Amino acid sequence: MNEQQATAMSMNDRPQESDDLLVVEDVQKYFPITRGIIFQKQIGAVQAVDGVSFSVKQGETLGIVGESGCGKSTLARCIVKLLEVTGGRIQFDGRDITKLSRVKMRPMRREMTMIFQDPYASLNPRKRVGFIVGEPLEVHGLGTAAEIKRRVQELLEVVGLNPEHYNRFPHEFSGGQRQRIGVARALAVNPKLIVCDEPVSALDVSVQAQILNLLKDLQDDFGLTYIFIAHDLNVVRHISDRVLVMYLGKVAEVASRDVLYKEPKHPYTGALMSAVPIPNPELGRKREPIVLEGDVPSPVNPPSGCRFHPRCPRFDVEEPPLYPFGAGHVAACHYPLERWPMTPDEIRRRGTAQAPVPEQALQT
Amino acid sequence: MALLEVNDLHTSFATDDGIVRAVEGVSFTVEKGQTLGIVGESGCGKSVTCLTIMGLNPKRNTITSGEALWKGKNLLTAKPRALREIRGAEISMIFQDPMTSLNPVHTIGKQLIEAVQLHRDVTTRAARARARELLKAVGIPRADARMDDYPHQFSGGMRQRVMIAMALINDPDLLIADEPTTALDVTTQAQILTLMKRLQEEFGSAIMMITHDLGVVAEVADDVLVMYAANVVEQADVDDLFNRPQHPYTWGLMGSLPRLEADLERLTQIPGQPPSLLRPPAGCRFHPRCPHVMEVCKTTVPPLAPSERDAAHLQACHLDQETKDREAAKLIEATMAEAR
After folding, report:
1. What is the DSSP string of B121-142?
2. Domains of chain A in sequence order
3. For residue range A13-67, what is the model confidence (pLDDT) as tens digits?
4. What's this model's pTM, rounded to 2 decimal places?
5. Are residues B111 and B202 in the same domain?
6. Less Cβ crowding at N or C end of chain A, within 10 Å?
7. Does B339 touch chain A if contact means CB atoms closer than 8 Å?
């Protein structure tokens, strides 16, 4: 079974394939906006995540990119059930976890862990490293104190820290080392899935490379599945097998890494890619960047139709579905990019000469 | 005469733990209309260099030596009043975080007008007109109405535009931008960088761009200074630096960058972390992390000297030229393979 079918199936609400570790179907997360102090009434909602569907296969890395405020972190928190979804379904390892209670969810938490963005804020400054890394083991009752200590020292070694630093406090470590502690803690319970929420954005380039390499090595060694969230397209390209581009709570495009970066179909993906500065002056001068006008609209009151339309040089009023482009590549655009790279002018005029929608798309 | 000429600048801070030598012997010049990029990781002294030039370090515990000649006049020994006249008028600065560098209790119009009236004897009406003109120039829609808005009513990118407007309002000759796009999204970063380039062409100011992002440097800079642990390790023309990097730290930085235009299976990482400036390593500061370390590196500090290939390309490394050429070629080969 190929990727295309897998994606199509998960979207069409058919039973998912056995090698899908995580299936997310039409997930919504609205945060209510209320007015009044005693008699609170809801006057609106922040539509942080609005109908996102995707699946992640065992051993795969799915990258999620988007600008700040596009809902990628909210989505991550919904997946590990730190937030309750407003609508939709999340299926993990063949089990529907959407409605599980806290108690029922607890054993599942061994299977899916999270690495957070800010290594300065996500570690308790008053606890020793040994405790921080060993806490998940203790919570799940995995072993005696001596066993846990042995396991923690082993973990510290795995992530490239000195096991003798067991008794140190987080402030005695640099940013990169702290992020390694965060990785060790996430690894402690042998999870199947690790959700990484911007794990390297707070780090310097040279240290960032160390953590990225570490994550890749761990995946090879332990057969981990990652959901890797970042705003940096370079980083996502480096680590992901497949990439999902989010815009304002919705999926703009999903494709395998090589396809997405070579032939993006959604103009937003194109604009994101062309906005990344190239560390090469010659190449940089040659290209013509697509500079998006304006800012991301507010998710309280998202634009009608295609959410990208106020910033898109060519759009339609109707909301585009996810059109398939083969091999699991889908994009939510009526006028997909014909090739890449395109100049801003070509993007403005695209879709006028040929049929706006590719043929396969009409069949779905 | 160069607009700004910095010679052998040293800055140290006396702290409870000892003396932190944050900048040690930095020299460079900035010409009119030129963009100088300063790259390095956090704590390498790039921001302190600029704060020293601007005279913005805390007086109490800062020890400064060397000179910073602004149009021939040494800024380091200038009186506070003379400095105040230069700051904001001839040299202005954009800071990293647009969220915290605007005053939240005043409208942006008021803050812009204040910037004008500090340096020019004009009526509030004229200052307001000037403020409006600048807001239009930096691309803020409905500039007229937005003058009376407070900073929280603007998005991050818009606030950074306001900061740029404020920095340019007195037609400065030099604009110091300290990580102006680090807190912004890529698409907004692209807008801001394009804007800065356009305004530089229009107003003809020189720019000092401090950043940790080699991509940003490649995009905007004419000349680049690479700093590591308070020292300049390499200094060259932007094309030269990216095509023939001469210092192992620069190789490390370039190799550790995930790239859109090339497919690297594994990033070359620089092992370890930057040293503490309280007790920096002896000899070359980079030697504990350098893959090419030799005995001489551990004892002798390499001077910042012209490379054998190009007198304008300065580098501070003991390695012989052949090894450098070979390593640079290898790096370019690896990172450019797919882009070609």
Report:
1. ---HHHHHHHHHHHHHHTT-TT
2. 3-111+191-252+320-333 (3.40.50.300)
3. 444 456 789 999 999 999 888 888 778 888 888 888 988 999 999 999 999 998 8
4. 0.84
5. yes
6. N
7. yes
